[in-house]
Each structure stands twice: as structure tokens, then as C-alpha cells.
Write a structure and sequence with these properties.
212 residues; 0% strand
């Protein structure tokens, strides 16, 4: 019981610290709104870039060889290979649509169990924990020392920026709810919070140094 209380204190302290930091940095943005045309252009560029990178890189994921790549690898029937970096973000969009744009870690955990068939690495650990009654954020902590600091969370951060354009604090909250399911209170979670907030701010701030 005491360990659980200490964990909750730790995660609350860290997240509040992050929110305070972003509130202090809020004044660095030049404007707080964008028009519909700008929003559509930014979302299209974000998703197109994500698809390009994923389609080119997916066939070589996990390989450490020097690859002689001149263009995209051959893809069966002209369709890109399945890519969890993209597929999970579509699932989160579905979750938002079906829950009036209001989801928490528990809701996303339910979608993990209902719709995600794979059990790779931290995905599998988080799902196994939830099936055993260990719910987020502990689902991303328990028996997950090997994977909780890996990159499985920040690779799915773009959706939160697109749903919270120019609102880094909201993007941070979404990212926390997402990442803690399978990464707990770890560097893997903080990485998604960082990328989601940076990408959200990029809708209204173009100075790279300020964004970082």
C-alpha cells in the first residue's frame, strides 16, 4: 500500500512539474490560434511525413546493417506495410471520436485490450498487467523494467499534437494518459510528453530553438 502511495505521489509530482514548466514557457509563442486552412495543411504535412518515414524505415526496423537504399523497398500490391506507429494513432483517434474527445489512461487501456492483437515487448506487458487487474499507470510499471524506457510511446505522439494544436499543456495530458499504460512513470513516458508538446507548439511557433 505504501509503495503504491509513493508511486502515485511520484507520478503526480512529475506531471505537475511538467505542467508548471509549460505554463512558464507559454509566452514564447507568437500567436495562440491558427485558421482552418493552416490547421489542415499542418495536419496533412504531419501525417504525410509520418507515413513516408514509416514506410521507408519499417522494413529495416531492428536491423543494424548498413543498407544500400535508393528509394522505397518493393511493397506488395502497392500498399505500405502495417505499421504500429501509424495504426495505434488511428485507434486513439477512434477512441476520441467514440468518447466525446475525452479519454483517460483507463479508456485507452480498454482500447488496447479490445483492438490491439499484438503482444510485443511493452505492449504485451501492459496488456498482460491489465488483464490481471493491474491498471494504468501501474500497468506500465509492473514487471516492465526491460521495456518501459523504450521508444514505443513517443512514436505515437503526433495524434495528440494534431488534436491539441497550439495547446502543449493539453497535448502533454493526452500523451501522459497514452504512454503510462505501457511505459508507466518512466523515461519512455516523458519522451512522448516531450514530443507531443513540441509538435503541438509547432502549429504556432516556427523557431526551432524556442520549440526545443
Amino acid at each position: 500500500m505504501r509503495q503504491n502511495q509513493l508511486f502515485k505521489f511520484k507520478q503526480t509530482f512529475i506531471f505537475v512539474s511538467i505542467l508548471i514548466f509549460f505554463s512558464q514557457c507559454k509566452a514564447t509563442t507568437k500567436k495562440s490560434t491558427i485558421n482552418e486552412a493552416e490547421f489542415r495543411d499542418h495536419v496533412y504535412a504531419c501525417w504525410l511525413g509520418k507515413n513516408i518515414g514509416g514506410t521507408l524505415g519499417m522494413p529495416f526496423e531492428g536491423k543494424t546493417d548498413v543498407n544500400n537504399i535508393t528509394f522505397y523497398t518493393k511493397i506488395k500490391e502497392g500498399e505500405p506495410a502495417a505499421n504500429d506507429d501509424l495504426d495505434l494513432q488511428i485507434l486513439w483517434l477512434k477512441a476520441m471520436e467514440e468518447n466525446n474527445c475525452s479519454v483517460d489512461a483507463y479508456t485507452l487501456g480498454e482500447y488496447w485490450l479490445k483492438y490491439v492483437p499484438v503482444d510485443w515487448n511493452e505492449y504485451g506487458v501492459g496488456k498482460t498487467n491489465m488483464r490481471s487487474g493491474i491498471m494504468p499507470p501501474l500497468s506500465g510499471e509492473y514487471n516492465n523494467a526491460k521495456w518501459k524506457t523504450s521508444n514505443g510511446a513517443w512514436i505515437r505522439s503526433e495524434i495528440w499534437a494534431c488534436l491539441a494544436p497550439g495547446n502543449p499543456m493539453l497535448a502533454a495530458q493526452f500523451a501522459w494518459n497514452d504512454a503510462c499504460v505501457d511505459h508507466g512513470c518512466s523515461e519512455g513516458t516523458y519522451a512522448e510528453i516531450f514530443t507531443a508538446t513540441l509538435e503541438s507548439a509547432a502549429f504556432i511557433e516556427k523557431d526551432r530553438d524556442k520549440l526545443i
